[in-house]
Amino acid sequence: MIRFSSVILIRIISVGIVLFGGMGCVDTFMADVDPPSPRPLVVDGGITSGPGPHSVTLSLAAAFEQSLEGATERVEGAEVSIVDRNTETRVQLQETIAGRYETKEGELTGKPGHEYRLEITLPDGRAYRSRPEQMPSPVPLDSSFAIYDSSPRQGIKVLSAFEDPEGRKNYYRWSVRVTRQYPIEAFTPPYTCWRQEDPEMNQIPLLDDRLVSGSEISNQVVYVMPPGPSATRVNQVDVRQLTLTEEAYDFWSRVEQQIEDIDDPFSAPPGPIRGNVIPVQDTVERALGYFEVAGASEPEPTCFRQSDFEDAPSTSFPGFGCPTGGQFERPDYWVCSSNPGQ
Q1: What is the DSSP track for 77-119?
Q2: CB of 270 within 8 A of CB of 262?
Q3: In terms of DSSP bridges, do strands 41-48 and 288-297 run parallel, antiparallel, or are they unpaired?
Q4: Tens digits of per-residue pLDDT, 211-264?
Q5: pTM for this one?
Q6: CA 228, 229, 234, 240: dihedral to nearest 10 degrees?
């Protein structure tokens, strides 16, 4: 089961509280208002079809006088459970790292047609639960592959191919995990390290099958990597196709709209994006974020580097070394060779 990074949701939710310029720098926004008390809870995660593990990350949203880093303050020591309402099975998630709660693989199998609910009790006693959602059936993702687009918005594009089932309404989202292999210039091992890269915040591919119902989709763009030194490394992109409920699709559409509005100086100031997690008692603020219940399909990983594409520009290979956050142990999901184009 692929474990995907969830930094996009936590970052964009904070836009309603903190204004920022880009991924690499953060500007603090000062407002002449009192910060919210208590700070809103941010919920990110869900359950998909299959044995899991399923995970939920809990954070506290930043107050007005804080920078964006404040949004990633993890909530430790909470009680987190997922309930299968069809069988009344309740599974308590275990905290694996600060603020991240997971089931064990096979402990709770997500089944299409079943309804699921998230229940949370924070250390300060605040309690939340999600509105129950029925898991849609997954739509098989036939394949994913990479091409180079030499248009003005050039880049290495990862595309997916699948057939949309006729006669039923489907909503899709794609999430990716990007892992990069780094060679190390050394006289003794290790000679290689790997690092999982944060996905760009402006990439949340969505699709409502209203105009393509029953069609064969062969060129759905799910990820774009700009050309440059990073692309010269060996990259492995794991794609997961999620079949969403209509409510989850609407939530992600609002997230996508806020991302687009960030670059529009004439748009209205962004506001908090509220989802389906609500307090058990209405004396506290509704949580931010979403507990997603989705069908999931995963093809074989896509491997590439910039030199695999004849029309890609020539980019000098950067120096050898393991970046901050890299690991020397080969990830158990890594399947790419050092020469993916051969």
Answers
A1: S-EEEEEETTTTEEEEPEEEETTEEEPPTTTS-B-TT-EEEEE
A2: yes
A3: parallel
A4: 787 889 988 999 998 888 888 889 999 999 999 999 999 999 988 887 766 555
A5: 0.81
A6: -50
